[in-house]
UniProtKB/TrEMBL annotation:
Domain of life: Bacteria
InterPro entries, sorted: DUF58
Lineage: Bacteria, Bacillati, Actinomycetota, Actinomycetes, Micrococcales
Protein name: DUF58 domain-containing protein
Record domain DUF58: where: 230-357
Chain ranges passing through the membrane: 38-59, 71-92
Length: 420
């Protein structure tokens, strides 16, 4: 049996063609990468203009029509003039700043853009564009001499709770017809948190304080009731904790150290299911504002806080972190029911003293009692049913207090009535 092998010359030719093909493909890819940013400057209208110009010149050449030739060359001249508007450097230094990154619904949110010409020549006028959420703001940038600055102020709408992305700032050069457009991005986007409205509550419920049951914390702190030991002073320690007698005896600054006392815990639970809210979107906003008010009051009273929704556990280490998390919460289908979330609360926070639930107008008394029945025994349960426009009512049910809230301003009075 004989085998057929390719001649060495054929193998060498195939290898050479493969190398040429690979090199050509690499060159084309590099060329496309270099040209693609420039192609991004060209609008659809410019491509249409170029097509009409080429077609007119070809037709004029074949048919001998002088009018078509004039039209074609006129359109070519328009494209060349448009290209002249986009050519040139952008010697800018651009700064984007927001006066505050956290505001409340209805507050004024102001920012500014500062553009400085860092080149050594005067630059032509340009346009500055700033995306703000789903919209886009535009500012005219005048001609700037070398070293000259220009500043524009802008206001961000804060009529709704939202996380608004501001930026990045881009400088735009283009022709008046909008055929060619060259954009350079200068800054990074920044987030503006429009927090929900809250009201100040006079006090919150005490609930069942598990600290009195004798279970001690293992955490150490610089100020509390239970003395633990003395230790050497470290930079940053509170000077009020210095034990002067021991410091005089040892020759070193000594500070008191205490065992941290457990504080009563407040847990807020929010439903994000469409099935728990009516058609009015203000129901969800009112429920968020009510739970945020309870949480901030707990911060003022130095309680531990945990916040959960039917879809996730929210960050609650600081008041700003909690309000940021509430700002980003949205209604979404497919979440667990609030009763299932209450079971998770009972599992994860068995020592909770107060549990505040937020729902819309659709869950009835039977649904509310079902939620409360799976929560830890001894915890004080408050269910806030958001129903904008109705009269605020406080109703006591077995194992919980139900507040039908018609307006956020009514919450302090309703909370006071629920305590009495």
């Amino acid at each position: 049996m004989s085998t057929t092998s390719r001649p060495p010359a054929a193998v060498a030719g195939t290898t050479t063609r493969g190398r040429i093909f690979a090199a050509t493909r690499t060159t084309l890819r590099a060329g496309i990468r270099q040209v693609s940013p420039v192609l991004g400057w060209v609008s659809v209208a410019a491509w249409v203009t170029l097509g009409v110009a080429v077609a007119s010149l070809v037709a004029a050449h074949r048919l001998g029509w002088v009018e078509l030739a004039g039209l074609g060359w006129g359109l070519v001249a328009v494209l060349l003039v448009s290209a002249a508007f986009t050519i040139g450097r952008h010697p800018y230094e651009v700064r984007l700043r927001l006066r505050e990154h956290r505001v409340t619904v209805g507050d004024r949110a102001v920012g500014g853009i500062t553009v400085r010409n860092v080149g050594d020549r005067r630059v032509l006028p340009a346009r500055i564009e700033l995306p703000v959420g789903a919209g886009r703001a535009g500012f005219g940038l005048p001609s700037l001499a070398a070293g000259e600055e220009h500043e524009d102020l802008f206001a961000v709408p804060t009529s709704r709770r939202a996380v608004i992305t501001v930026g990045p700032v881009s400088s735009v050069r283009g022709d008046p017809l909008g055929l060619l457009r060259r954009t350079v991005t200068w800054t990074r986007p920044q987030d503006l948190y429009v927090h929900p409205r809250t009201v100040r509550l006079t006090s919150s419920h005490s609930g069942l304080v598990h600290d009195l049951e004798g279970k001690e914390s293992q955490d150490l702190t610089a100020s509390d009731l239970t003395f633990h030991a003395l230790r050497e002073y470290s930079p940053g320690d509170d000077r009020r904790s210095i034990h002067w007698r021991s410091s005089a005896r040892t020759g070193k600054l000594m500070v008191r150290q205490f065992v941290e006392t457990r504080r009563s815990q407040l847990v807020v639970g929010l439903s994000c299911r469409p099935e728990d809210f009516g058609k009015d979107p203000e129901e969800f906003e009112l429920a968020i504002s009510a739970l945020g008010s309870y949480a901030l009051q707990a911060v003022r009273e130095q309680r531990d806080i945990a916040a959960v929704t039917t879809g996730e556990t929210l960050r609650s280490a600081t008041p700003d972190a909690l309000l940021d998390a509430l700002t980003a919460v949205e209604i979404a289908p497919g979440h667990h029911t609030l009763t299932e979330t209450c079971r998770a609360i009972a599992r994860d926070y068995p020592r909770a003293a107060i549990i505040v639930l937020g729902v819309g107008s659709l869950p009835g008394p039977r649904d509310v009692r079902a939620m409360a029945s799976v929560l830890p025994l001894g915890a004080e349960v408050i269910c806030v049913r958001a129903e904008p426009g109705t009269d605020t009512k406080v109703r006591r049910l077995p194992g919980l207090t139900s507040i039908t809230l018609g307006a956020l301003a009514d919450l302090p009075r309703a909370q006071h009535r629920s305590e009495s």
